[in-house]
Amino acid sequence: MTLPSFLLGFIAAGAISAVTFYLLQREKSRPKEEDKVGAKRASKILEDAHNQAEKILEDAQKEARELKSSLLQQEERLEEKEERLREQEEKLRERERGLQRVKGKIEKDQQKLEQELEKRASLTRKEAEKLLLKNLEESLVSQKARIIKEAQEQAKLEAEEKAKEILVSAMESVATEYVPEATVSKVELPSESMKGRIIGKEGRNIRAFERVAGVDIEIDETPKEVRISSFNPIRREIAKRSLEKLIADGRIQPARIEETVERVQKALARELRKTGKDLAYKAGVTQLPAEILTLLGKLKYRTSYGQNQAKHTLEVVNLGKALAREVGAREDLVAKATLLHDIGKVKTVEEGAGSHVELGRKILKAHGFSEEVIHAAMAHHRDEAFRSLEAVLVYIADAISGARPGARLEDYDSYIERIEKLEETAKEFEGVKDSFAISAGREIRVLVEPEQISDEEAVVLAHEIAEKIEKDATYPGTVKVNVIRELRASDIAK
Question: What is the CB neighbour count within 10 angstroms for residue 254?
């Protein structure tokens, strides 16, 4: 505990006086010859000690006055707070008395209501309580049963998810990252003026390119860049390469466009065969028919739920082979079945008939694959009962690849199915040469044979196609139908 400064001042003054007294006594005891010198020194010491004691005392008195003033101010503030507390206490008491009055009124009203209810319901209070408890008990039993059922279903679901997580963790050494595939390709331009050459006089170049390639060209979105839009990745790739060649060549006109697109189509066909061979080599599968290799190559340009099918297929192969080694299954059979399990998805784009499992079975059967391989490959969606351990492993590997985090981002299958339905609907009419769905299915362009369809008939055909789409197809918003009739005339200058 620290003493106040003014008390310390008094103590210090007393101490100095004692020291002074001691020094004077000491001077008195000195020899006679030193009396004069000692007297002067004692006088000086006494004077200094007196001055210092007065200074300490003055400071202590000043601090004492300030402390007293501070105590008085604190006492005033405490009195003010006490007064406010008394006022608040009185308000609380008044509020409590008000609540008591309200409570008494509510109790009286409640008694009146209970009496009125008893009269109207012909039930006493006890009878009403008994009925209420019975109803509550029945409700609780029903709710309890529902909670138990939900808990069982949740436990089952969590068990399945946990099993998948364990499998994914065990196979993470062979997992790969996916980048979501887009339905739009970009082509960089050397200059902004190139857009005018692509469009051509009165738009003839761009119309010819869209007609031949079956894509939609977006010109004005960004500077020095055009975008190629199509749900069909093969068409989009052909159009992208063709446009790049035309830009590099500089000769952009309808006849040149047709030649370039045709050459690119042939070159891409050779590339697809090579891509299929590479995919089969990485999977460790040999002696596959040439057409099967081409179909496998097309997986590079096919997506499902945002997954690139070639990368997905290779991951399923690696997962299946790893699982086969773990459980002692036939690794060669699993490798072949996983490599071919999604081959039907290529044909869904081209044919638009049946599921990829049905189409895949037809493809493999037509090329002489054994029923053992076909079953193991096509049972991966559990459309049929498993007849071999290898078929189960193909299913598990496909499920892991599709269910792991980051694998699938969007539902593209339903989108492609809707687009294909629009195109097939238009092709059912007589005189239609080809049809292309563009702008994410919000527009369909129909090319007709000019010898079979007149200008007047083209108007009627557009109306009939729109009516059939309204009747048979499912689509968001509206679909614009454009019927294009183009008559070409040619001659030779001699």
Answer: 16
